[in-house]
Structures are given as C-alpha cells and as structure tokens.
C-alpha cells in the first residue's frame, strides 16, 4: 500500500518548508507507477534510481531516515544497508550507462540478477540515454529501463522534449521492445514490469514508458504556476490521483475498509515519527568524513589535507565559528 | 630508490618495447584474475588501433577482450556500473582527446561513485589511453590531457616513461580499487627497456623513480621526455653538468618527497612534461617544491612543455611545437 510513500512525500515537503532539510524533489502523483514497478523486482535485482524515484527506494527497503538524512547533508547510506540499490543519480540520464554496465557485469558473472533503471521523460533527450540503451541492446544486458513520463522536465513539457510521438518507440532503434503502461494503475505497472524483467533476464532489454503525472513542483525550489496551467491539457486518467483510484478499487473488491486504512495510517505515522527521530538524533558529521569515501587507498596529499583540517577543527571551537 | 636499484632487486628481466610491456601486463592480469576484462573500441579482433591489445582476443576470447560500439560515454558509464559490483573493467580510450565526449561519466560519475555510495562500493576501473603528438595525427588526436584527470578528486593518474614502468604501473592500476588512468605516450611504444618478468612485479602508485643521479640540477620529466632528458643529461655530463633525472611515473598521487629531496641537493629544478604550459602538471609540481624546498632553490624553476597552442597536422610545425631534449638542455643552460 503506497499510502506510506504519499505520507513520506508530504512529510518531507513539510520538513523542507520549515528549513529542516535542503531542497526536496516531490513525487506526488507518481506513487502508483513507482511502487508498482518496485514490487516487480526480485530480491537480488538492482534498482538504479534518481532523485525523483524515492517512492521506489522506499519500496525496496531503503529506510526513510536514509532519505531524510541525505537531504540533511549526510552520506546516502546512513543506515549502512546493503540493498542492491545504486546511489540516486542527480544529473540527468547519467545512471543509464551504469545500468547497462551492471547488466553486463551480471552477464559476465552468469548471475540471474536483472536491473531496473529509473529515468524520466526529460532524460531521453540526453546522450547518455542513447549510449546506455545502445550498450544494453548490443550486449544483451538484463535491464528494464523504466521511464516515467510525468509530462514535465522542470518547465519543459513532454512535447517540447522530443518530436517522437511516444517514448516507448525509441526502443525500436536499439533492437528491443518498448511498451507503454498506465502509470496510475499500480497493478498494471507491476505486471508489466515483472514480465519485462523476465524478458530482460533472457537477454532482451525492455524500455517501459509509464504514463503518469507530476502533480507537484520539480523540486522545492520552483513554482509550477509560473509555467503551467492547471489542470494540464492531459486526459483525466493521466492527472488523476492514483492513490484515490487504488483506494476505491480495493474497497470495491472488498479487501479494504475504513479500519484497514486507519491501521495503515497509524503504522505509517509511527514509521515517519521514528525516521524523523533517527534523523534528528544522528550525530553531527565529523569533518574527517569528507575524506574517507574518496579513495579506497587515500593519497598522501589527501591525508595531509585531512590532518590539517582536523587539527584546525580541534584548535577552534566550532561554536565560535558558527557565530 | 633509484630506478637502477629497483631493477636490481628484480632477478630476471627481459628487453621489450613499451607496447609489449603493456600487453604483457594486461595478459598477466587477465590470467591472474577472472574478474578482469578489457573493453573499448577495436581492442578485440583488430587488436587496438595502436596494436597494444594485439593477440589477446585470440587468447582470452570475445567476452574478456570486448569490442564496444563507438561510444565513449557508454563504456565509461558501463565500466562505472560494472565495477560497483566487483568486476574489474580495463577500458581503452583510443585517444585521450576523446575524454571530452565522456567527461560527465569520468569526472562526475566514475570519480564520485565511491563517495556517493558513502564508501560502500569500490571502483576498480582502469582506463588506458594514449597521449601526445609526433605521429602527424593532428590536433584532435594528439592531446596531452593528463592534467585534467590528475585534477579531479576520486581519480588517480599515472604516465609511464619506460617499458618497466609501463608494465608495473599498468598492473598496479588494474589491482587498485580506485579508478586509475594510465596515460601511454604514443611515441614511446617502440622504445625498448629491461622489464622484470616476475608476475608479481608492480610499481606502487605514488612512487617516483630516480632514473639518473646528478648533483647540479634536477629534471623532473614524464613520458617521452624521460628518455629525451636522459640523453640530454648524458651529453651535458661532458660539459661538467650532472643532471638528476626523475620520472614521477604517478601524477596523482605524486611522490613529492623524492622530488623535494633531489631539489634540496641540487638547488635547481626543470619540469618537462608534454602538456600545455599554462595551468598544468608543471605548475603543480613546482608549487609543491616551493612549498617544501623554497629556501633550497638557487635559481628560478624552469618549465618545458607544449606552448598554449594546438598540435599542428603539418609535420615540420609539429616538430617545432613538441618539447624535446634540446628544450630541456636550453632550460638547464638558463639556470646553471
């Protein structure tokens, strides 16, 4: 149930608004698509995410507190988890060749792992999209490129991003299949991505175009009312709230009632409270931590620079510096 | 340690070219570790445009010596992804000039991936690439760009000047868990030298070699200019000037100590590197020396390199622009 993802997104936005953490990229409206896709992955499969796909990271088991801490200036793997989840890509499309390489490595090791590479419609304009998909096709990499077409890349609408009538059809040029799915139907997304992952394991990558809608801003640093009219000129099913839709579907099927919803909401609130608490009680990062992850084997120069910084930090009272 | 002393530690050596030394390093590492594989444009069936990987495809097959599409960002990115799960890709970037089209994947992805993983993933990628003018390959295939790579935190850069260091550094790069770029100067592929045959022979990253000892002036020279400087030093010895020639071998990490120790002895420094003269490798070496040995200097430090221009296609002009042993001699004469 992706109520969890919705509440996380709302809470993260609220926390950002009161200056608790730096900029945050909301995914409101895309929960059905992201959670549906994430649930199609097998335990050992890799997720190659971006800043927009936090609902997927949560569904794969990344602790809420990791995502909050990252936005508060801590390393991404704060909980030390060892899930097969790549660091979130923040430049656009750079993760796509990585996914192809992960797939090549899986083939090289005769592993059964498949890779789900998240990307947005804007990413399809980058060179890395072309080079990554081309590599996957040529080397028969077990990768599903899961492209969420949410209609917008910051202020640029999908139709100004590419003259191609669909994104899915771009797959044809790489020698593999491209398919479209209603991204606001989590069950449809899950079924389609699961089938795509099976095909990918056989050496046939797939490009999935999941049609959904970015209901909010690009990030907390922009105001979409400056560049788009609400509601957008898209069919209702694209812009409708996937959560309400799934909720009413489950009630119609008789598998969800008010009590269930209350129970779920209570669980989610408790999880959120705990995540915020974990994030708030995390010790201040030490200056030396800036140096640790740069090299497996640090260079003498870096070791000297580290020693100098630590000596400075020891000498100066940090409270004085903050003042 | 002097290069001579280092070689004496090795019981057996074989004379071979730089090209053969790199190939031997690749062959030995492919044999030693199944996680190692090569990829790049035309490295397989064709054996590489400068024939460095020649024969390896027949020995190790298409999966371990892998031809890729013409797609530099593709293979730099794929290597970054593949390395995160523990395989050890060795990528050939045909000409270092092509780093331009893959720079995002190099400087923002490969270099930072370990950091973005919070240190939880290693990044054992080796990138072999060619540098330098002298082949009449024109401005877009003759660049010396190692300064860029040495500049980005997260990457390491080595640049062999002899056959022995070509082998030892290549093997050390492949065994390193950090991304290492190996800059092979095209004009020294045919240069011969004694190379240790021990399969465990490696040269630790960050150790310079004193190729010739001398009391009067220190010449820090890289790649092709190591050989040129050694010849110059021999001819200058007849005039009574004894030059000490140091090959840093590794640009980042840089063995500052060996260079500084030499300058304390000689009081004079020449830095000879084929990269363009401004804002470059020369400047970094010189800055480090003045930080630690300013009061040992008896004369202004001299740089020998390529003027801030492009490598001409015209052979006579190219020879004009390229730094060589005569330029090193002139620089020494200016300060001794």
From TrEMBL, chain A:
GO BP term (any one): sulfur compound biosynthetic process
Assigned keywords, A-Z: Oxidoreductase
Compositional bias of kind Acidic residues? 268-277
Q: Where is the Dehydrogenase E1 component domain?
A: 5-287
Q: Which Gene Ontology molecular function entries are recorded, alphabetically?
A: oxidoreductase activity, acting on the aldehyde or oxo group of donors, disulfide as acceptor
InterPro entries recorded? Alpha-ketoacid_DH_E1_comp (IPR050771), DH_E1 (IPR001017), THDP-binding (IPR029061)
Query: Which Gene3D superfamilies does the entry link to?
Result: 3.40.50.970
- Map out region (Disordered) in residue numbers: 268-303
Q: Which domain of life is it from?
A: Archaea
Name of a matching Pfam family: E1_dh
Q: Which PANTHER family match?
A: 2-OXOISOVALERATE DEHYDROGENASE SUBUNIT ALPHA, MITOCHONDRIAL
Name the UniProt record assigns to this protein: 2-oxoacid dehydrogenase E1 component subunit alpha
Q: What is the source species?
A: Natronococcus jeotgali DSM 18795
TrEMBL record, chain B:
InterPro entries assigned to the protein according to its UniProt record, in alphabetical order: THDP-binding (IPR029061), Transketo_C/PFOR_II (IPR009014), Transketolase-like_Pyr-bd (IPR005475), Transketolase_C (IPR033248)
Question: Transketolase-like pyrimidine-binding domain spans which residues?
Answer: 16-191
SMART domains on file = Transket_pyr (SM00861)
| Gene Ontology biological-process annotations | organic acid metabolic process; sulfur compound biosynthetic process
| UniProt keyword annotations, A-Z | Oxidoreductase, Thiamine pyrophosphate
Residues making up the signal peptide according to the UniProt record = none
Keyword DNA-binding on entry: no
Report which superkingdom the organism of origin falls in: Archaea
One Pfam family assigned to this protein is Transket_pyr
The Gene Ontology terms for molecular function here are: oxidoreductase activity
Q: What cofactor does this one take?
A: thiamine diphosphate
Q: Which PANTHER family match?
A: PYRUVATE DEHYDROGENASE E1 COMPONENT BETA SUBUNIT, PYRUVATE DEHYDROGENASE E1 COMPONENT SUBUNIT BETA
This protein is called Transketolase
The organism of origin for this protein: Natronococcus jeotgali DSM 18795
